[in-house]
Write a structure and sequence with these properties.
- The longest helix has 18 residues.
- The chain is α+β, with helices and mostly antiparallel strands.
- Strand 6 and strand 7 form a beta hairpin.
- It has 2 helices and 9 strands, in the order E-E-H-E-E-E-E-E-E-E-H.
């Protein structure tokens, strides 16, 4: 007998930003049966709406079934970027920073307490441990104390 271990992995469902959504409509007007005329697939809703206007003008039909389709990506929770302002550790620079955003292939991090942002590999950054957060906070506080007149 083979034993299997299943574990729950939290996922998020996100719209795939690399794929275009699809819009279409079908005329469902008619006395005895549906008209069945179709708009075809469009990349924007305006194309479908224009088809509906023209079809109504030509036939007098006024009832449509509209469909919207997009592509979704399932991402494990650990693949999601951190929330803006979250403290993360960058092993490339061995520093803790506040996550700002992901721009292209880089994560932008800002030093705790302010300063110049730096770029990090988003695949390597991880949430900062409690000790790392505390150390970064103390470093920022010391830096502020030194700058005071």
């Amino acid at each position: 007998m083979t034993r299997r271990v299943f574990r729950y992995v939290p996922f998020t469902i996100e719209q795939d930003q690399t794929a275009e959504p699809e819009y279409e409509a079908r005329c469902v007007s008619g006395d005895d049966a549906e008209c069945g005329a179709r708009s075809g697939t469009h990349g924007r809703p305006e194309g479908v709406e224009e088809w509906q206007r023209k079809h109504t003008q030509d036939t007098g039909h006024r009832r449509y079934r509209r469909n919207f389709g997009d592509y979704a990506v399932m991402r494990p929770a650990e693949e999601r970027p951190p929330e803006r302002g979250a403290l993360v550790y960058d092993p490339g620079t061995r520093r803790v920073g506040e996550y700002q955003a992901t721009v292209g292939p880089y994560a932008l991090l800002r030093p705790v307490g302010g300063g110049r942002e730096w770029e990090a590999d988003p695949g390597r950054i991880r949430p900062a441990t409690q000790a790392e957060r505390l150390s970064a906070g103390v470093k920022a506080a010391n830096s502020r104390a030194v700058r005071r007149p």
